[in-house]
Design goal:
- The complex is a heterodimer of chains A (167) and B (275).
- Chain A has 167 residues and is mainly alpha-helical.
- Chain A has nine helices and no strands.
- Chain B is built from four helices and twelve strands; from the N terminus they run H-H-H-E-E-E-E-E-E-E-E-E-E-E-E-H.
- In chain B, strands 1-2-5-4-3-12 form a six-stranded antiparallel β-barrel. Chain B has a six-stranded antiparallel barrel with strand order 6-7-8-11-10-9.
- The radius of gyration of chain B is 22 Å and the shape is globular.
- Classes of the chains: A mainly alpha (167), B alpha+beta (275).
């Protein structure tokens, strides 16, 4: 029997909530030198990773609309104009839904590469929406890599919730 | 479709301020995240306090008391100086000096990266915070409030690329503008080569434009690099405020006299001259 929507929502909520909190916490690298901070972007897109995970696992429940809402929340949390992250996350969700079967059957390392592609495109879109397309290439690269490399840990953490969400 | 909505939202926000109230309302949804995010730090602090010995607390208390006493003494002198300056100023018909009120707030979140230098503090509209309000720490000017929610507000730091503050060189009252630049420093563009600015000079807020209250230290000049061809010098300065370390900040409320009152002061002086 499929899980009721309320139950699914409650199971997914902690993951997203933790992701939002993590994206807002005072970063540990903020005490680093200015060069370190201003030339590279070390902030992982936690919400995006959690979004991708649940879109792969539950493509019929989590998709474009959820992506849009999660993105909107990110806009609120980061002071960016409403719609910037919303648009980007929505597109990322759309890609993930379109290829969810393929993604689901991949091995973890292959998935990480796919996620790398997704985070890379998202970073490019985000930077172009803020008018800084390719302005800081090292920053875009680090942002993409940091997020993608965290994918395995996100998967590990959220796997435990998978059963509760699907039954 | 959602795509159109997003694009519409972005365009609207870029060109107009219509969506600001919507943003303010929605930021309420973000408040729980900030509350939860500040919990770990607060818990650690409370635990640390719990385990601090009475001896440590007592010595810190004594230290703070002594410091407070010194500050009060300096304040007394400041008060008499202020009265003296006000008397002198009224002789010239100048506006009265303003005294500022401060609201202390805690830093809840820090958003620093290549394109952003912002803080989130735990005071908002219901505490009287307003958009554009100057923010200080114990050492100097930090930035201004860019977004006000009911409970939390966003502060853009002086080092953010989009930020600029009118300053004066304390030594010679030269007026300049300091903007956020590379490497977490401030840049002062288009300063004539002949301007009298040297490394080590202190830059204070000049109050021009009415956005920032005057007199607060902003930065110290690091480097003056003259460009012979263009005739302009490129100056970099280091902010005095502990932008990324300060956990507590102060939001400034200026006590401004109204235009009418200012007019009255000048008017009465002119009349007095005629006698």
């Amino acid at each position: 029997m499929k899980a009721r929507p309320v139950r699914v929502f409650l199971t997914l909520l902690p993951g997203f909530l933790v992701a939002f909190i993590l994206s807002v916490l005072v970063p540990p690298w903020s005490t680093g030198t200015d060069w370190f901070i201003n030339n590279f972007d070390w902030r992982p897109e936690w919400s995006l990773l959690v979004l991708i995970y649940w879109t792969i696992m539950l493509p019929d429940r989590v998709g474009v609309l959820s992506g849009w809402m999660v993105g909107l929340m990110e806009d609120l949390l980061h002071g960016s104009p409403l719609g910037r992250h919303a648009l980007t996350y929505m597109l990322a969700a759309w890609f993930t839904v379109s290829f969810h079967q393929h993604l689901r059957s991949q091995a973890l390392w292959q998935q990480t590469l796919s996620v790398l592609l997704l985070t890379g495109c998202s970073q490019l879109l985000l930077s172009s929406l803020s008018g800084r397309f390719l302005e800081n290439l090292p920053a875009t690269l680090t942002a993409t890599l940091v997020s993608a490399l965290l994918w395995p840990s996100v998967v590990l953490c959220l796997h435990g919730f998978r059963n509760r969400a699907t039954h | 479709m959602l795509l159109l909505v997003s694009v519409l939202l972005l365009v609207l926000q870029h060109q107009t301020r219509w969506l600001d109230p919507v943003r303010g309302l929605l930021s309420l949804a973000a408040a729980p995240v900030y509350v939860l995010a500040s919990l770990p730090a607060e818990t650690v602090e409370s635990l640390a306090r719990y385990f601090t010995s009475r001896q440590e607390l007592r010595s810190e208390l004594n230290r703070l008391r002594a410091r407070n006493l010194l500050l009060q003494a300096e304040n007394l002198k400041l008060e008499s100086l202020r009265l003296e300056v006000e008397a002198l100023r009224s002789l010239h018909g100048s506006a009265e000096l303003v005294s500022d009120r401060y609201l202390i707030a805690d830093t809840v979140a820090l958003d620093v990266g290549p394109a952003r230098h912002e803080l989130v503090v735990n005071k908002g509209g219901r505490d009287g915070v307003f958009r554009g309000q100057a923010t200080l720490d114990a050492y100097g000017l930090m930035g201004q409030v860019t977004e006000v929610g009911p409970v939390f507000s966003r502060v853009m730091l002086v080092t953010d690329e989009q930020h600029s503050v009118p300053v004066q060189v304390q030594r010679n009252d030269l007026h300049l503008v300091a903007g956020g630049g590379e490497g977490g420093l401030l840049e002062l563009p288009r300063v004539p080569n002949t301007a009298d600015v040297r490394p080590g000079d202190l830059l204070v807020s000049s109050g021009l434009g009415g956005k920032f209250p005057p007199g607060y230290p902003v930065a110290t000049v690091l480097d003056v690099h003259p460009d012979r061809e263009a005739g302009f010098a490129h100056i970099t300065a280091k902010p005095v405020a502990q932008l990324r370390q300060s956990k507590q900040v102060m939001l400034v409320f200026e006590d401004k006299r109204t235009q009418a009152q200012l007019g009255q002061v000048v008017g009465s002086r002119v009349l007095g001259d005629e006698s």
